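Contributing: when you submit paired examples, paste them exactly as shown. First protein:
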Amino acid sequence: MRGEGAQRGKNTAPVAGPVWLRLEPVFDAGWFWAAGFSPQDLPVRNWPALWDRWLSAARAGLLPLPSRTLLLAELPACVEEETDAQFRASPFLGYAHDLLAQALCRDLARAVLKRSASGGRPCLALRAAPAPDGAKEGRPPEPVRKEIVPGESLACLPFPRLSPDERAALVRLGILAPKGSFPLLLRRYALLTIRPPTGGCAVCALAQDCPKRPFSS
């Protein structure tokens, strides 16, 4: 057993940590309307400023591992605290804050994919939805089609199946929770996926417990 452990440690390359990228995804009001909100019950004018404030504290980039490179995007703990405070004051606004945080995390991940697919060239800013026209008429605007990397799933991005060495490295870096077998990220608003994110549910480590998983007959 001692010899096996020494051999395993000898073959384990050190992981330096994520390479963070400077990304600026633009606020898109389209997700408000897709979630069932209307311009009357959720004014959009205050949300871009909140998006920009959270974006300034968010991080996203590539995580080089000895055998592959993963993609990581995460929002800081202050976003969780602010969202929880909104839930206590108003579940309606708390839900909107929660969706905004998820949207920011998702768009950061997509921006990383676009940057890496373009060979490191600056990624294009995501185009904002035409919210004012819909707001004036009291109806949600038409959804905006966003450019994505070929093969990227619009629904979700698969969580990687981690080897014991990869899991240990992510715990040391403060990305994964140190206890338990379920691969939970330390931050609530965070995303870890493979690059490129192909394969969908078939390669996702969380597929068995995913709430989006179809019910079997």
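Second protein:
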Amino acid sequence: MARNRCILLAVLMVVVLGCRKDPPAETPAAAEEKALEEESPAQVGPAPEPAAPPAAPAPVAAIARPAVPAEGDSPAPATEVAQADLAPEAPAAGQDAPSDVVAEVPAGDGPPPPPPERGRPGAVGAPVLPDLRLLLTVNDIDGLTSGKVALRRAPLVGLQPSPKSDAMMYEPVKGTGYGVGIQLFREDNAALVRDRFNAMLASYPSAQEIAAVSGRTFFAYWEDLLYVGFVQPSKNLVIVLSCGRSICSSDALYELARKVSTRSSN
């Protein structure tokens, strides 16, 4: 049995060896193609179409260059060229050249005058203000000072005379003290007189209304200055008297206001 098995195995080996065939030898062309395939990666899908050749660049437009003036000629400025282009054509023969037409502006009377202040028209037709030298006389000043202090007439600083107002004072000839002063205001009607008096009563220092001299009257003081202001109803006047304490007392100033009120009513 063992011998038969050995014979059977030998026969099978012979059969198997006889069925194997050696692979055909590769040709040189096939070997080269195989080497190229191994070097380059496999391409999936159809082969791409060859790229189109680049288009030729478009021709560059020629750049216009300014003409070079001939030697000795200077180029005209741009402003002159522009003016020459805008200049009107010369008129034909027999025609007059057009002249520049300038619109005439009618001559006016100047800027309009400013509107007059409310209730204070110009001096045309207005009553003449009383003369302050007649309202407050030199004799009044001598009576206050008893001749001990020399005073002279001078403008009152801070109030410019106008058709509606006036002021003056008697100041000491020596020293810097205050003497005696008077201010006068004329209004057009009683309502404006009342408004001015009320404004003074509210603005003067320590002002208080006192017994009337002729119309409403107030007394005020500030440091060494005394004031008495009053209304002259018959003339639409507001008058303010002032005096330094070294010249007069409050009672003396009140009596002086009574005198001035009587004179201003005439």
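If you have annotations for the second protein, write them as plain sentences, like these:
The longest strand covers residues 165-172.
The radius of gyration is 62 Å.
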